[in-house]
Specification:
The chain has 388 residues and is an all-alpha fold. The protein has one domain: ADP-ribosylglycohydrolase fold. 53% of the residues lie in helices and 2% in strands. A two-stranded antiparallel ribbon has the order 1-2. A hairpin with a 2-residue loop joins strand 1 and strand 2. The longest helix is centred in the middle third of the chain and has 20 residues.
Length: 388
């Protein structure tokens, strides 16, 4: 049964994974990571040097686009009159992402597209700051209206000096989907909701199907499925969509990624070199795309210890972020899944102690729990950090 603790765990461990992985994003050689942090990978939250090539150094625990977009998803859900009305929710999500996007590099023109009459929930704007947005997300938000699964956004523009084309095959939908995955809906609806939410900006079939798969993993984990069962059930749902034209190509690519992750985790679990090699084995030279991120996520989850303590979580998360791909996004997503499975109690206290916006994330989690998990558990212990 979904609880406030699971919602907190999902968002807090996701935030920890985000900030844990941020210093490694962009390091293209695994051996460089091992030389600096050991053969088990990075397991301490450290400062983020020269963030996004900006020349700025971010302190330990400073969250990035993965968590800020996730919290923006929460804001839209809190604002919706009917959380199950997709047409209302998609408009609020688009407006929320525009508010977030205007603060990113090359995002200033988005301000003209914002509906200033919307009164966002208290605390929403605390997550709207410069934090390293993907070029594809900003390019998508520049379009006149959000995309859909059947009518994806198609564009060709220059963002941060580089040609950026759509439909977008990246992982930007995956990293922000966790709040939607927690809803009390049938698995097929969770999958479709994940796909629809990604297609607002990431209309490539591989991108939105991978997002639907991540939504399922989080959904099953929050309902106490172990990781092997969660992956197996996710595969079963994806197979139902394999003959649907809008989904077929994405389903095929994602099933191959999950199959490879299952095979490697069974034969060689918890191996940084195996983790790092997954994108290339799937035929993707760019490990930041949605399908490689799905493979990385599934391998890390299937390698994680069952019923971990804080040390087990640190080990699992170190594997999730210690590779030459999208370290902070994979860390955030793996954190979302494991946090939803085990709750906030497994998160290492030393990570929570340095998480810069811990209280802000907890407040958003608790606000969402009132809507999607009301009165399903005894009152939580007092949290002095929140004045509770």
């Amino acid at each position: 049964m979904l609880s406030r603790d699971k919602i907190r765990g999902c968002f807090l461990l996701g935030a920890c994974g985000d900030t844990l992985g941020a210093p490694l994003e962009g390091i293209k050689d695994l051996e460089t990571i091992i030389a600096a942090h050991g053969d088990k990978g990075l397991s301490d939250i450290i400062e983020f040097k020269n963030a996004y090539g900006s020349g700025k150094d971010f302190p330990p625990g400073r969250i990035t686009d993965d968590t800020t977009m996730t919290m923006t998803t929460v804001s839209a859900m809190l604002l919706a009159k009917d959380i199950n009305d997709w047409q209302e929710l998609r408009g609020l999500l688009w407006q929320g992402y525009l508010n977030w996007g205007q603060h990113q590099e090359d995002g200033a023109p988005l301000a003209a597209k914002i509906d200033v009459t919307i009164e966002w929930p208290e605390g929403s704007d605390k997550f709207w700051f410069y934090c390293g947005a993907g070029r594809g997300t900003i390019a998508a938000l520049m379009q006149d209206e959000p995309g859909t699964v059947s009518v994806p956004l198609n564009y060709n523009c220059i963002i941060r000096g580089k040609e950026t084309k759509g439909p977008n095959p990246g992982c930007g939908g995956m990293m922000r989907v966790a709040p939607l995955a927690l809803l009390d809906l049938p698995p097929e609806k969770i999958f479709e909701l994940g796909c629809d939410s990604a297609a607002l900006t990431h209309g490539h079939p591989e991108a939105f199907v991978a997002t639907g798969a991540i939504a399922l993993l989080i959904h099953y984990a929050a309902r106490d499925e172990d990781m092997a069962s969660a992956v197996k059930k996710t595969v079963a749902v994806l197979e139902q969509y394999g003959d649907r034209p809008d989904y077929a190509a994405g389903v095929d690519a994602c099933l191959k990624a999950l199959a490879l992750a299952r095979q490697k985790a069974s034969a060689q679990p918890c191996d940084l070199h195996v983790m790092d090699a997954l994108p290339g084995q799937l035929g993707y030279p760019n490990p930041f795309l949605a399908v490689p991120v799905l493979a990385h996520t599934a391998y890390a989850l299937l390698s994680a210890p069952e019923k971990p303590d804080a040390a087990g979580i640190k080990s699992a998360m170190a594997l999730a972020i210690s590779h030459s791909g999208d370290s902070d996004s994979v860390g955030a997503i793996v954190g979302n899944v494991l946090g939803a499975r085990y709750g906030a109690g497994v998160i290492p206290q030393e990570w929570l102690a340095v998480l810069v916006q811990r209280a802000d994330v907890e407040k958003m989690a608790d606000a969402l729990s009132v809507i999607i998990a009301p009165a399903k558990e005894p009152a939580m212990r007092r949290n002095p950090d929140l004045g509770l």
